[in-house]
Amino acid sequence: MLGLGLAGVAAAALAGCATESVPVRRLRFATGPQGGPYHAFGRALAEAVARSGHRLDVVPVATSASVDNLRRLDGGSVELALAMADAAQDALLGRAEFSHPVPLRALARVYVNYTHLVVPAHGPVRSVDALARRPVATGAAASGVHVIAGRLLQAAGLTGDRAVRERQLGLAESVAALRAGTVDALLWSGGVPTPALSALARTLPLRFLPLDGFVSALRERYGSVYTAVTLPAGAYGLREPVGTIGVGNYLTARADVPEPAVRELLHVVFDRWRDLLRDVTAGARLEPRFAISTGRVPLHPGAVAYYRSVYG
């Protein structure tokens, strides 16, 4: 019995040594601007991975968000990236902001962005059409917000001599500009509620313009990445729901990230999804049946293996 016990201890020790000898896989993660929801998700994921015991090290990298993230993924300066579904599809197909196809792979659709078109409640703008020739904050350059803003404005016929005067500003700068009156509207795509907009609504009465009437035109031209969703009553002090445009957010990776690393990462994502989404979008859930819905962007083989092993 003693011999068997000693043998068991030795085997456990050897197993522990083997685990310690496995090198830590470093994964640089392109997120978004400091203080924004993508960067908050990246920080939360890095912290969750560090506490998980997995031999992974996730390093968040602050960026301009979706388009910038996918370019970095293609260039090899990061292994992971968050991106809005429309930008990810463009990258895969090598169109719009991308000069060639980017061989990205999806790990999960992590949550849905809601498109916000916000104007002062007591201002002159009461419809999308009324934005013609007015200054509008349309998101930072190389961001997913800027992509959907351009497509929305085109679908609304705000082009040519009716084009808005675009101001390429990030969320914090957009909020400051709307408060100061240097823009008449801001466009944003994010979770509900977005804390920066909730804070603005407490000091400046806001109107959220309905956008669901443009979903069909966007889907006809760009595919199913766009869906009809609703800003719920109560959010931002809204008395009634407001229809708008939804766009998924994908956690993506380079195709050459090893399968075991992807499986381990997804274990953490699904174990700690509440922590990951807490500061990003209230009330959202991460469920496998939605997580695997990544449109034309194929799942990474490691993601396929994870979903099959856990959910059959």
From TrEMBL:
InterPro entries, per database record: TRAP_TAXI
UniProt protein name: TAXI family TRAP transporter solute-binding subunit
